[in-house]
Amino acid sequence: MKNLRFIAGLIILVLIGFIATQLPVNEYYFFAGYVVLQFVVLATAWNILGGYAGYVNFGSAGFFAIGVYSSIALLKLFNFPLPILIVSGAIFAGLVGLATGYLTLRLRGVYFAIATLALAIVLETLVSNWSFVGGAAGTFVMRPKDTLFFDSYVKFLFVVMLAMVAAAILIARTIERSSLGRGLRAIRDEELAAECMGVPTLRLKLIATTISGALMGAAGAPFSYYVTYVDPPSAFNLSFAVNAVAMPLIGGTATWIGPVVGALLLATIQQIATVTISSELNLLIVGIMLIVFVVLAPDGLVGLARRVFRRGR
Length: 313
Description:
With about 325 residues, the chain is mainly alpha-helical. It is built from 14 helices and 2 strands. It is globular and about 55 Å long.
């Protein structure tokens, strides 16, 4: 019953977002809102492996870019509609996540983190030399002129990303409350002990890596329509990797809501700074907030709120 209410709440959230696009609101709010929602998906995806299992992934930009460039390739080949591009991006990135996990998940700690960073660098090098998708020079992508129920394609993309946020949250919450989530937490706490107790650690980590990669790829699939011009530096932007790690840490990695809170807070501050000052401040903002929260709230905002609530009782 609780799950049904939760799903209904997510559906209502998407409907509210759709209704908002029908109101006479400045289009820029949806343009900026898309970026905020995009980071919610990325942070939630990262947390499935990095938060629940404790395996820090620095290759988020690589999985995101797989979704970006798989959609560009499919557009050039078949001109598929956006829903198919999103599913395809999720499948390709999920398969790369599975393969990467199989090759690297026997590594632990900093060695695994370095391996995922190397993956992103290798992928960027390959894409930079792939002329079919524009190579290092980049490529333009034209948005469709007409979209049913929307007077602007940006508003359509906003609702699409909002629906992806709802799906990502539902997936993360389901994992957290399942045997998969309990197994991942056991791996995070003490992997060797979990293996001794019969937890299939490698299988669980492979599942987590696949799901995490698939969500990041899905988040990247609409990106080419959003920016209309894509080159390797934009698709493999450092901000994707940094924010995907920082947002769950700021919000709290122990629960599904932590990455959502961290992403909404940090991404909103970054969008405000972009408009009022400069986008160059975004990484500086991330660094300052990480230092503050590591010192004052190592369990993130959610952990801090729980401690305050317990003291109040």
